[in-house]
Amino acid sequence: MKIGIAFTVTDRPEYLKDTLDSWLNVRSLEDKTIIFKVEPTDSLSENLKIINSFCNNTHAYTKVIVNESRAGVGVNQAQCLDLAFNEHDLDAIVMAEDDIIVSSDILEYFEHCFSEYEDTNILTVCAHRYTNHFGKDDVVFKEQSFDPWIWGTWKSKWKKFLESDWDLEKFELNGNIVGGFDYHIVYRILPKNNLVSIFPDTTRSKHIGMTGTYARPESYFDNPYYVADRNKKAFRLLDK
């Protein structure tokens, strides 16, 4: 199975370096296709310097694309998915961001899930959890939910369920106006198609961005379950 990683990069080089440094410690990185989709912000030069340093320190195939104009996370992610599946003919893709660090076994987790669960009702593979239900770092479980802080899907699922239904429009939810592709996946796409996501019991990613479009220092949550270095293991599915 051909697996890739796509990074969306905005204007936070102070987080980007720590993020990419964490990815350099990830096992199974070397045989992946890595795509960077970079916004043309005031931090572009600094971001490209950090990205080029990362590319020079991995043997993985890398492609760096600078947007002509600012697109936003939702559009960037859709374009990355299109590039991954239509231009690079990948079978599955991991969607990453510039302010989310990862555990050393995150790709082993994704490889397991992509291999085992494509022919099921699982739409997305998510790496982040705020809590751990069982206290087991080898457990994965299914839930009709979604978390965008490192997630992935298959070409087959993108083509069947997401590509033609990708929506960023705002809508009313419990009296509040919400929007973004993640809300549409959770509250519209998953339930209407009777689909679920799969999660690790203990998170494989951690959001470090305290500033940004949707991030504020006062709302920052330091996930206590994140561990950077994890040993290789056999994952097992456990029903909640």
Mind sketching the topology for me?
Blueprint: E1 3-9, H1 13-24, E2 33-38, H2 44-56, E3 61-66, H3 73-87, E4 92-97, E5 100-102, H4 106-116, E6 122-126, E7 139-143, E8 151-154, H5 155-162, E9 171-173, E10 176-178, H6 181-192, E11 196-200, E12 205-207, E13 236-237
Helix pairs in contact: 1-2
What does this structure look like?
It contains 6 helices and 13 strands. Strand 2 (33-38), helix 2 (44-56) and strand 3 (61-66) form a beta-alpha-beta unit. The longest helix is centred in the middle third of the chain and has 15 residues, at 73-87. It is globular, with a radius of gyration of 17 Å. The two termini are 28 Å apart. The strands form 3 sheets. Strands 3-2-1-4-8-6-11-7-13 form a 9-stranded mixed β-sheet, with helices on both faces. The chain has 240 residues and is of the alpha/beta class. Helix content is 30%, strand content 24%. The protein has one domain: Alpha-Beta Complex (Spore Coat Polysaccharide Biosynthesis Protein SpsA, Chain A). It has helices at residues 13-24, 44-56, 73-87, 106-116, 155-162, 181-192; strands at residues 3-9, 33-38, 61-66, 92-97, 100-102, 122-126, 139-143, 151-154, 171-173, 176-178, 196-200, 205-207, 236-237.
Describe this protein with a few key phrases:
single chain, 240 residues, alpha/beta, Spore Coat Polysaccharide Biosynthesis Protein SpsA, Chain A, nine-stranded mixed beta sheet, two-stranded antiparallel sheet, 30% helix, globular
What is the architecture at the second tier of CATH?
A: Alpha-Beta Complex
**Bulk shape:** globular
How many helices in DSSP terms? Answer: 6
Mean pLDDT: 91
The share of residues in helices is 25-40%
- In the CATH scheme, what's the topology name? Spore Coat Polysaccharide Biosynthesis Protein SpsA, Chain A
Strand order of the largest sheet: 3-2-1-4-8-6-11-7-13
The number of distinct structural domains comes to 1
Distance between the termini: 28 Å
Q: By CATH's scheme, which homologous superfamily applies?
A: Spore Coat Polysaccharide Biosynthesis Protein SpsA, Chain A
Sheet having the most strands: 9 strands, mixed
Classify the secondary structure makeup into a structural class: alpha/beta
By CATH reckoning, the class would read Alpha Beta
Radius of gyration: 17 Å
Order of helices and strands: EHEHEHEEHEEEHEEHEEE
Q: Which residues sit in consecutive blocks of at least 5 with pLDDT less than 50?
A: 213-220
Say how many strands there are: 13
Question: Into which percentage range does the β-strand content fall?
Answer: 15-25%
